[in-house]
Write a structure and sequence with these properties.
The protein has helices at 18-24, 28-37, 41-48, 53-63, 68-76, 89-98, 114-120, 133-136, 143-153, 167-175, 186-195, and strands spanning 3-6, 13-15, 82-85, 103-107, 129-132, 160-164, 179-182. It has 199 residues and is an alpha/beta fold.
């Protein structure tokens, strides 16, 4: 029986820093500049890969001291970046589990902020196992984190269906032998899983 591996952010959880920063910045233009130049996706990815937020924030403040309060808000008000569950996805997770499939999460996420998500989304307790980049000090699409998932839970890549909204992450999984699904939305994921006889 296949094992079903879900990404979290963008697949099951709607996370976007703009949910917070549209409250902080008066103009969308300045908000986008800040997220493209100060607290960038690459900067955030380093926290996802295990760097402490305190270190990342100190680095950003040293470069952009005038934005110190906005930089600090990235961690202090992080929970305001959570927009809720992705519509329809948690139902798919539960339907997959109801059919007897083991489910796992492979996520790029900071160990410092994951407890906030876990407190908000009860379905995170329903996985048979979670591998988190911040805990492993590795992040997708590094092949090593996929290997960590397999070794930790005694899985085989060809027996796993890996679902992610990031094409680079999906491509890395496919190269390692995973069956893959590029997530676009819940209805298309459900169709994919029906076609593969998972649902």
């Amino acid at each position: 029986m296949k094992k079903i591996v879900f990404d979290l952010g963008g697949v099951l959880i709607d996370w976007n820093p703009r949910y917070l920063y549209k409250k902080i910045f008066a103009s969308e233009e300045e908000m986008e500049w800040f997220l493209s130049n100060v607290c960038t996706p690459a900067w955030n990815a380093r926290q996802d890969a295990g760097r402490p937020f305190a270190e990342g924030i100190a680095e950003a403040k040293a470069k952009y001291p005038k934005y110190a309060p906005q930089i600090e808000a990235y961690f202090l008000r992080w929970d305001e970046m959570l927009g809720g569950a992705v519509k329809g996805s948690a139902e798919i997770l539960r339907d997959v589990k109801a059919r007897g499939y083991a489910t796992y999460a492979l996520t790029n996420w900071s160990v410092e902020t994951f407890p906030l998500a876990r407190a908000k989304f009860s379905f995170l307790d329903e996985f048979d196992g979670i591998v988190m980049s911040g805990a492993e000090k590795l992040a997708k699409p590094d092949p090593a984190i996929y290997g960590r998932l397999l070794s930790k839970f005694g899985l085989s890549a060809p027996d796993c269906v890996f679902i992610d909204d990031n094409l680079e992450n999906v491509a890395a999984a496919a190269q390692l032998g995973f069956e893959t699904v590029l997530f676009k939305n819940a209805p298309s994921l459900r169709r994919e899983l029906v076609e593969r006889a998972v649902l």
